Every structure is written in C-alpha cells, then in structure tokens.
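Example S7 (structure tokens).
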C-alpha cells in the first residue's frame, strides 16, 4: 500500500514540475516580449497583429479541457492537472513568433475539476491556472452534458461541453468561449478518446493610449488514450491539431 501511494505521489510530482516549466515557455516573460513587440511595430499593436495572436492563444486556452466522454455522475468527481502544448505559433502570429521564436513549443497547465450534478447527465466544470506576476491568472468554468453513457459494452460514451475561460494580465485581457464534443471507449486497461473543439477568443490590449481588441475563432482536434495507473487514478496522452498546427497534451488525475 505504501509503495502504491509513493508511486502516485511521484507521478503527481512529475506532472507538477512539467506544468511549472510549461508556462515559462509561453508566459513567464510575456510582458517583456510584448513590450519589445510594441517597439518593433512602433507601438501600434492593432487588429493585424492581435487577431492571429487571439486565434493561437484561444486554441491553447481551450485545450486540455477534456480527456473522456464519460460523465462523472452524481456525486462523482474528476480532478487533475492537464497540459496542452502546441508545436509552434502560426505563421501570421508575429507577436508569439517575435517573443518565442517561430518553431518553439508553447503551452500552459490547467488544474481542472469536474463534479456530477443531481441534474441527469450534467457535470459542472471549474478550471484555473496561475502563471506568476508576469503571466497572469486564468479561470474558467462551464457545463458538460452526457449524451451517451457508454455503459453498454462496445458502445461509446459521448458528451458535449461549453466553457468560458478568461486570462487577466496587466497588459491585456483575454476572453475565450470553448465548445467541445468528445467520444471515448472504456476498455479494461485503457480508454481511447477523440474530440473536437471550437474556440472564439477576444484579446483586448490595455497598454496603448487607445485600447485595441480583436476576436478570432479556430478549431481543435485531439485523440488520445487514458491509462489506468492505479485504482481511481489515470494518466492521459493525446495528439492532434490546433488551427492546423500539431498539438499534444498530457495529464494526470483522480476520478471517482
């Protein structure tokens, strides 16, 4: 029993340290490279630059929001750390390219909790992330509706979810609306899943004399596998596309 608990603890520590590294790829020096980008374009960060940035950022913020089509069921819960990663910024996104480089992986960690509601087939979702003073605060919430439970052998569990996510930063605000559909198939040891997401994201700059903002939409496609490490504990890996750019995700959690 002690050995099993030690393995669980070590697994959680691994994903925790990976999560700590991830925001440094994207946001730890966000203020610095955003300031430099302003200098590069003469201080005018308008729609031309903000729109592709909003599209990339929305695909990242909306990521990591599902790993199964199954509902928690009242009073069940699922809590975990989920890390979406995108292989590089889009070619039009000069803000991230100037800040990160054109081929650098970027991502951010989410702590997400789901709890089954007394309402039939509905779960509540809450998610959050703190990226430090330079990175900002992320909060999100929404609902998940289970269309098929997957309780009959060889049938999929299918669910849909709607989420509202926000990033609060001293230099900008981001508001993201995410819609997801996901199917999963429960097998004895592993649970494959596949899903699609749509994001609508608005970025508002707060550092110009005249506030500017832009809105953009994009798609996410992801497929992956949940591995049952120990009773009630899972680890998942996924591969997909965010706005036609390769993406990855991993996560670790407990569900009951």
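Recovered sequence:
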């Amino acid at each position: 029993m002690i050995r099993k608990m030690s393995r669980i603890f070590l697994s959680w520590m691994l994903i925790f340290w990976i999560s700590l590294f991830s925001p440094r790829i994207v946001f730890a020096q966000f203020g610095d490279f955003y300031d430099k980008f302003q200098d590069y374009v003469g201080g005018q960060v308008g729609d031309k630059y903000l729109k592709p940035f909003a599209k990339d950022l929305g695909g990242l913020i909306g990521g990591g929001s599902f790993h199964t089509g199954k509902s928690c069921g009242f009073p069940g819960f699922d809590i975990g750390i989920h890390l979406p990663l995108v292989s590089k910024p889009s070619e039009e996104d000069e803000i991230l390219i100037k800040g990160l480089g054109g081929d650098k992986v970027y991502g951010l960690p989410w702590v997400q909790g789901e709890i089954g509601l007394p309402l039939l087939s509905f779960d509540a979702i809450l998610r959050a992330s703190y990226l430090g003073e330079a990175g900002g605060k992320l909060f999100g919430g929404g609902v998940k509706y289970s269309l098929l439970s997957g309780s009959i052998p060889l049938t999929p569990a299918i669910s849909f979810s709607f989420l509202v996510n926000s990033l609060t930063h001293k230099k900008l605000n981001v508001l993201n609306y995410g819609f997801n559909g996901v199917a999963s198939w429960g097998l004895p040891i592993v649970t494959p899943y596949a899903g699609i997401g749509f994001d609508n994201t608005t970025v508002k700059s707060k550092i110009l004399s005249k506030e500017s903002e832009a809105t953009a939409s994009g798609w996410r496609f992801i497929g992956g596998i949940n591995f049952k490490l120990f009773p009630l504990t899972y680890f998942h890996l996924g591969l997909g596309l965010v706005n036609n750019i390769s993406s990855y995700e991993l996560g670790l959690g407990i569900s009951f």
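Notes on this example. The first strand starts at residue 77 and ends at 86.
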